[in-house]
What we know:
Elements: E1 5-6, H1 18-35, H2 37-42, H3 67-85, H4 87-98, H5 103-109, E2 116-117, H6 128-156, H7 167-175, H8 179-220, H9 222-236, H10 238-241, H11 252-276, H12 280-292, H13 295-298, H14 308-311, H15 319-334, H16 337-345
Antiparallel strand pairs: 1-2
Helix pairs in contact: 1-3, 1-4, 4-8, 6-11, 6-12, 7-8, 8-9, 8-11, 8-12, 9-11, 11-12, 11-15
Amino acid sequence: MPAVTTLNDRSPALPVSGKAIGLYVVLALGLAWFVTLPIWLIGIDLSPSLPAVKETGEPGSGPMPTEGELFTQSLIAQVCGVVMMFTPGIAAVITLMVSGVKFSRVFPMLGAGRPVRVPGFRPRAAGNWPYVRRLLLGLVATLAVTLLIALVITIATPVWPANGHTLAHQSASALGMPLALFLVMQFAMIPVGAIFNALPSVGEELGWRGYLYPALTQRLGFAWAVVVGGAIWGVWHAPLIMAGYNFGLFGLPGVALMTASCIGLGAWFAYLYGATGSIWVPALAHGLFNAAAGITLLFWPADTAFNGVTASVLGVWSLVVLVPLAAVLVWRVAKEPGRAEKNLENGLQTPGESV
């Protein structure tokens, strides 16, 4: 099998045996449930507020928590969520070390050092500027994908109130500033949020894109890696989704919806990793997507329950964008392996060519 290598093809291959991949999946899923146990033991409701949409699930019953209890629960949930984001990376590190990889080689093999050669993608041009150019293009494209999803949601869901009183209006009024200035500030904060979100996001990307997708690609091909890897990524979210996170669903329907969205979004992040060979690119893109995820909230009616199933950027309407995007990326990558492998067999590099 072809190895995941640096541009000079000197890096050892990732462990891609069924045993190694199975160990990774068990660790990633198991650690996610372990670190989120406090959420389940306390019974924290993670469903969207404003108010929550609960008619499609089975939220916990009992007296309403006090403001102090709500703050404590929110803090616990946020800490558990951030720690959970590091579990895929931890699982990848453990998997590689159990497979005999020296610790000093683990992070370079996962794309955290020099750009690596990702299966299914052509060799890339070396140098700082080609890398920076691909990074910037990837981030701009990620923002465009997010805004396109928001546009589809706005068109498909009648969320704009007749009186124009949206959550953006409400927030701007509470802060005593013009609506236009408030909206400009919200959009300007997206790049800042992307940087702050990139640290926990790299914890995910080291595992999903750094290890799982390349390993699955070598065994199954990129198309099946997108489907299987995205499904595993979606199921990994189950501890939060089944507590109401994102959609206000409290069972398997929420996990199924998250899984479908993760297949499409995972294809995009995997493509960015393959096109750049650096885990920092999908990590920043992941952080940017999370930072921009609240765009649809700005234009939601202030007096209407937020429906995460339809209005979330990972809800049902996101699939209108993410499914075709994944299909195009799979088709695009599928055109490359023959030429790329021929170049590798001949010991050739093709600077300037990238997927």
